[in-house]
Amino acid sequence: MTTPRTTKRSPGRPKNVVDQPSMRDKVLSTASILFMELGYEPVSLNMIAQRAGVTKASVYYYFTNKADLFTTSVTEMMTRICSYTLRIVEAHSDIQTRLQQIALTKMSRSHVEFESLMREAMPFLTQEQRDDIRKAEHQIHEVLADTFRQAMEDGHISQGNPMLLSHAFSALLMIGNREMVGDKAYTPAELSASIVELFWKGISPRHTAE
Question: What CA–CA distance (Å, rounded) separates 141 from 157?
Answer without folding.
Answer: 18
